[in-house]
Amino acid sequence: MTQKSLFPSDEMQLFNLGGYGALQYFPEWIDGGAADRYFSVFLNEVSWTQPEIRVYGQMRRIPRLQAWYGDKGAQMSYSGALFEPQPWLPALKKIKNEIELLCGHSFNSVLVNRYRSGLDSVGWHADDEEELGGNPIIASVSLGASRMFSLRPKSPELGNASFKKRDLLLNHGDLMVMSGSTQEFWHHAVLKDKMAPGERINLTYRFICPR
After folding, report:
1. Residues whose CB is less than 8 angstroms from the CB of residue 178 and which lie 6 or more positions away in sequence, other chains included
2. Alpha helices of the chain — where are they, by DSSP H?
3. Cβ atoms within 10 Å, residue 59
4. Radius of gyration, CA atoms only, the chain
5. Residues 74-111 pLDDT 10s
6. DSSP for residue 3
7. Which terminus of the chain, N or C, has fewer Cβ atoms within 10 Å?
């Protein structure tokens, strides 16, 4: 008997970035039941922290919970802080392997973010840290409550007047892959949303270049 795949969706949509990068969107990439199980596993097994970072000269806790997992040596730097990866959880590694098969790219780490309510957020930024190398590929899996993912050009000179802020609603089980020059030309964010229906967990897989 052939086992049903937990990752059945091969439907892919291209999100229009006007030639300035590439964003592929796979709705319901993880089957609904499997997505429910993953959400429960991560909610209970991830070692959640709320680190402090320096913002305009002051130390503040980030407005969400997070954890960093990956291969040994895949260190992440963020706002002046250096994070050592924890060893892979089996479920995180299984999803990583499936994404690698889909997009033909290797990942050695994942940032796990937990948005406890619509008051949790991540501000405008680009995943353009030096250790990610040029034109990094970032694969993002959404679990739990739907939240709006927003992009805006880094420069008002980008493209033309039609390429301003862009929004994409990310739902339970969706996969999004950013590649090409997306991080060079765009900032992205998950902004506060008081109407968000509950908790969301987001996995962003990436490859940290050896130091």
Report:
1. 21, 22, 23, 127, 137, 138, 140, 188
2. 32-45, 90-103, 182-185
3. 12
4. 17
5. 998 876 677 889 999 999 999 999 999 999 999 999 99
6. P
7. N
Encoded tokens for 49:
């922290």
Specify the length of the chain in residues. Answer: 211
DSSP 14-30: EE--TTSSEEEEETT-S
- Structure token pair of residue 29: 């990439």
Q: What is the pTM of this model?
A: 0.91
> Which residues are CB-neighbours of 90 under 8 A, at least 6 positions away?
none
Give dist(CA 174, CA 208) in Å, integer: 23
Cα–Cα dist 98/24, whole Å? 16
The model's pLDDT over 130-180, given as tens digits with 9 standing for 90+, comes to 999 999 999 999 999 999 999 999 987 776 656 788 999 999 999 999 999
